[in-house]
Amino acid sequence: MSSIREVLEQREREMLAPQAAKSADSRGRLRPEPEDDVRPAFQHDRDRIIHSKAFRRLKHKTQVFFAPAGDHYRTRLTHTLEVSQIARTIAKVLRLHEELTEAIALGHDLGHTPFGHTGERVLDSLIPGGFNHYEQSLRIVDVLENDGRGLNLTWEVRDGIARHSKGKEGSPVGVDASKRAATLEGQIIRVADLIAYVNHDIDDAVRAGMLKAADLPKAAVEVLGATSSARIARMVKDVVTETQRGGLQGIRMSDDVLRATLAMRSFLFEAVYENDVATGEFKKASGILTGLWEKVRERPDGLLDRRIIDTDGLDTAAKDFLAGMTDRFAVTLYERLFIPKPWIGPISWNQL
Ligand code: MG
Q: From the CA of 105, how far away is ligand 1's center (Å)?
């Protein structure tokens, strides 16, 4: 008799496009282990990510603005959920594997530092050998989670996490096969990430008073639409139709929509990510992270994981600790290590 998992694996074969990844055809886990009775491999991976500590910490990590006080700004967690929703919409229409898509989306930013891209730049300059969040995401799922045993995810989820990032200049579609994810599901995340952040960062920047809708580049608005929801709909539809037109050989966008989307991204870099407010925040984040980097390496006992120091060295242990922090954890630890506690002696009438 077949298990529930085997029935579901068979259903994937019947329902999904031939180009879709299939759980039963996975290249396997980092270390072999018996599969679950109920959940096919990619679904199981999605669940492991949701139950991880690094996933819960995303709620207190900055997306764009340093520890935003307003309740309506995106955090790294809500960004992740928006990416997942956009990516699943695309996967569903194309009959690709929704749970694989979701697992990669939910895991793609686990390695982000505190203080957003600012924090990433600071760590990159502090750590010998540099730092980037997608390698750290992979290290979290492979090594750090589950008390040092890792989540033991499938090759396809790990590949998607490792190859989602585009940086400031990279294209979300049409890149060389050696640089993009091997599965179409992984390639969806690369484009869904951009669709999500370009739109929600504009929305947050307007909310913060850094931008007005009228400041957006006119030519791009003409192609994409005047509101976030119109732009997301336009981009998603474009990805779906262009990918179908190409016979699902790769995830694609039309030239017009791609050009307009990249124009929006360049505008955001200038107006929001690299403007004066962001530069001021960079200096603060840099002060905090540099102070912590020096202090935890000088005094590792009780702060750093001894097992990592023994196997990978002090710098790696300090990197894992700092990169894993939420914004508020970093601020609190900094205060505890660097700011003297106010001393209040016995209180009586004659001190007034
Ligand atoms: Mg992202």
A: 8
